[in-house]
Amino acid sequence: MLLYLRLFKESFSFAINALRNNKLRTFLSLLGVTIGIFSIIAVLAAVDSLDKNIQDQLSGLDKNTMYVTKYSFGPTDIPRWQRDNYPQTENDSYEFIKRNVPDIEAIAYVIFAGGESIKYEGETISGVDVTPVSNGIADIENLKIEQGRFYNEAESVSGASVVVLGYSIAENLFKNLNPIGKTVRIYGRKLTVIGVLKKVGSGLGDSSDEQAFLPANFVRQFRNGGSEGIPGAVIIKPKKGVDIGAFEQVLKQKYRAYRGLKADEPDNFFVNKLSGMTDAIDSVIGTMNVMGWIISGFSLLVGGFGIANIMFVSVKERTNLIGIQKSLGAKNRFILFQFLFEATILAVIGGLVGLFFVWLVSLSINLSEVTGDFKFALSAGNMMLGFVLSTIIGLISGVIPAISASRLDPVEAIRTGM
């Protein structure tokens, strides 16, 4: 054990001397490892961070949540012209499904209204994601209230002129004032603010911080919400423990009967599951990981060649010393381990520099206000992966030079070195 500790110490000294004596050559050789480790760990950390932020955003939603609408949230084989002829999902569909489909925990009807302006006295915020939706959305999306309350079923059914604002909207519109009870204008009509949502931060799609919720029936009073009117959807959250496949079949059968579709006629609606969207997100993130590995792998390959090159040069420069060591009794494995350790140490140094740069990048991103609530997570697992990769690169890059050094004949080595 003491022999190998001494060997490690000597190899470390040789590696440091190589750094000192051949600064430019060593710098160029290690640059590939540094860039490779930086690229891989930065990509992995960025993808992990994106995945975590998306999962946090979706954490309040049940993955079995379904959207019944004329639109498909993913790829479909149905031609565009055929989908365009599908009727809109109207409020009557919501009422029918609510009454006739069993095992529903929460249900809501939403109108895809788009961006609107919200005015309060002299303040105006444009392009707000105004969401006309029935009160069941609070249970489906697990909306948390910071101030006031969410509108109840009676207000939802009657189409009361009330609104619940997202945290950022309320903050920008009212500054330091208490929003509850204040009157704002949306669609040119007066609505009373009855609630403000808790801050959730940015994430996938539109954050509730930037939304305003009001009863769908309020908008239906002055906008066409029929089968040919503005787009809408029925959002359904099944009860826990329900067989989702069987639930979806029952839902489709009953809704087909409601729309008068015959057995040989295709559906004229889509049932989009949130789990399908999360699976698509996971697939995209997986693809990003693979692409990151492929691109960064070329940098690691260059770095490995750089380490191998500097080790061959090191063997050439120390041929005389190797001959002397072997003539004094040093065994082949001693010489082999000496150069393997040196190559590994050099690669690990390059890897640690790469990890240091990733840490600097993550720190600057997390301190920056440009990225908002997005947090760059550099996990201990990714850092350990960078260290292991560096070690493997060093071992692979140093194995051939080390073997060539260990097989040198001592007499020839001393003569060649002279």
TrEMBL record:
Residues spanning the membrane: 27-47, 290-313, 334-360, 380-400
Gene Ontology terms, MF aspect: transmembrane transporter activity
InterPro entries from the UniProt entry: ABC3_permease_C, MacB_PCD, Macrolide_Exporter_MacB
Annotated ABC3 transporter permease C-terminal domain residues: 293-410
Keyword set, alphabetical order: Cell membrane, Membrane, Transmembrane, Transmembrane helix
Pfam family, one: FtsX
GO CC, any one term: plasma membrane
Domain MacB-like periplasmic core: 26-253
Source taxon at top rank: Bacteria
Cellular compartment(s): Cell membrane
Topology of the protein relative to the lipid bilayer: Multi-pass membrane protein
Principal location: membrane
Protein family according to the UniProt entry: Belongs to the ABC-4 integral membrane protein family.
Protein name: ABC transporter permease
